[in-house]
Amino acid sequence: MHRIWSSLVRVLLICPAPFRKRAAAKLARYILDRYATILVSGQEHLDRLKGTNHIFISNHLSNADAIVLDEVLKSFNPVFVAGIKLTRESGSRLMLETFKTIPINPEKADRHALAEAVAAVKRGNSLVVFPEGTRSRSQSMIAAKKGIVLVAKMANVAIVPIGLQGTEKLLPINDKDMNQEFFHSAAVEVNIGKPVHLPPIEDHETKKDWEERCLDYLMHCIASLLAPEYRGVYRDPESVEGEMKDEGI
User: Fold this and answer.
1) Are 193 and 54 within 8 A, CB to CB?
2) How far apart are CA 18 and CA 26, in angstroms?
3) Rounded CA gap, 221 and 216, in Å?
4) Domain ranges for the chain
5) In terms of DSSP bridges, do strands 55-58 and 126-129 run parallel, antiparallel, or are they unpaired?
């Protein structure tokens, strides 16, 4: 099966772009139907948001995360901020053909990508961001990068947290060779939270302190939607509850 998958990817990548995109979309649909049982909680939050655009933020466990979220959020015309290294591997490059992406270099302040992300929201798209910047190898949350705070501030739309569980089993990470990652049958839980906004800056705060507090708040919003073993460095949810009370959520 692994050999067949690798051969299929190689063939599709040399096909003309229109055919390749259609084939990749059908392949993604087949993969989800065959391997993934997707359980969505908080659908009522999405139902209330229809017809508007937002920034969706999620924890990051697998290269399957975007395929799953593209299916769940398809009515929001999502654009994904995706690490540029995904374009260098054949399997992930093919999967990128199935949805709209903005490539970003997570190892530096990629101002061009951040500007593109804001522009996409201004055009009416919803943005999907994985603030951790890379997949978690521990299967629990790792420290996030603060680019999401800048995008959220400039885009000035509601932010919707999402907790993902199970994609690490659907498409496990292979750090030796990303092209050797293969799909397995798995139950995937997608927990949609209530929309939130960045908390206001306090009189005594510096800009740096405010950005750090915003980032911590957003990541705790995600963590509150996950089972404790997935929360990692954001395992304490108390600050989220306080902020939500302040915003009247």
Assistant:
1) no
2) 13
3) 9
4) 36-246
5) parallel
Beta pairing class for 159-165 and 186-192: antiparallel
Q: What angle do CA 167, 211, 239 make, to 5 degrees?
A: 65
DSSP 3-state of 26:
helix
Q: What is the pLDDT of residues 35-93, one digit of tens each?
A: 999 999 999 999 999 888 999 999 999 999 999 999 999 999 899 998 777 777 767 77
Distance, in Å, from the CA atom of 130 to the CA atom of 104, rounded to the nearest integer, reads 11
Superfamily covering domain 36-246:
Glycerol-3-phosphate (1)-acyltransferase (3.40.1130.10)
Would you call 81 helix, strand, or coil by DSSP? strand
Nearest to 159 by CA among 96, 82, 247: 247
Closest CA to 158 of 132, 190, 121: 121
Count Cβ atoms within 10 A of the Cβ of residue 173 and give its class: 0-12 exposed, 13-18 middle, 19 or more buried.
middle
